[in-house]
Design brief:
Elements lengths: L9 H4 L3 H4 L5 H12 L5 E3 L2 H14 L9 E3 H9 L6 H8 L8 H15 L2 H6 L24
Parallel strand pairs: 1-2
Helix pairs in contact: 5-7, 6-7
Length: 151
């Protein structure tokens, strides 16, 4: 099953139908995505309710079990921890001195991970019911699954 040809948010992220029409579907990519998530204590996202909804909808569409981990919302935690307003990812990154190419998927993901690492003290994790974890270097973010041609 391929994505719908209707794109409503091209003006935000720049992704067009032509960019994804020949790419593998989520269901085909899950085997590459899931190993990065399987041992995670939580999943971090900036505006986690949106990302959780998209991830769950994709899993449901392809009959894939939803990841069991709780979501850590870096918007909510940045607001509570640093009293930042506005809490958009560029604002939080500027506050923390984190480099960001906003609305570029890899840059957004790396920046969100770096924000999450700043926010994940044992005390803060306990507030959301997550066991403290060892901080690990960001790795594997630039690894990409093979494209549709198998290369």
């Amino acid at each position: 099953m391929l994505p719908r040809a209707t794109f409503r948010f091209t003006h935000i992220h720049g992704i067009r139908w032509q960019d994804v029409a020949d790419q593998p579907a989520f269901g085909d990519l899950w085997i590459f995505i899931q190993p990065f998530m399987q041992d995670a204590a939580f999943l971090a996202a900036h505006n986690a309710s949106f990302d959780r909804g998209v991830l769950y909808a994709c899993c449901d569409l392809y009959g894939i079990a939803r990841p069991p981990q709780p979501f850590l919302c870096t918007v909510q935690l940045a607001c509570k921890t640093w009293n930042l307003r506005p809490t958009k990812l560029p604002n939080v990154c500027e506050y923390l001195g984190i480099e960001l190419e906003h609305h570029q998927a890899l840059s957004d993901a790396e920046a969100c991970a770096r924000v999450a690492l700043q926010l994940t003290s044992p005390k803060q994790l306990a507030r959301i019911g997550v066991e403290p974890i060892k901080r690990q270097r960001l790795h594997g973010l630039r690894d990409r699954p093979p494209d549709a041609s198998g290369t």
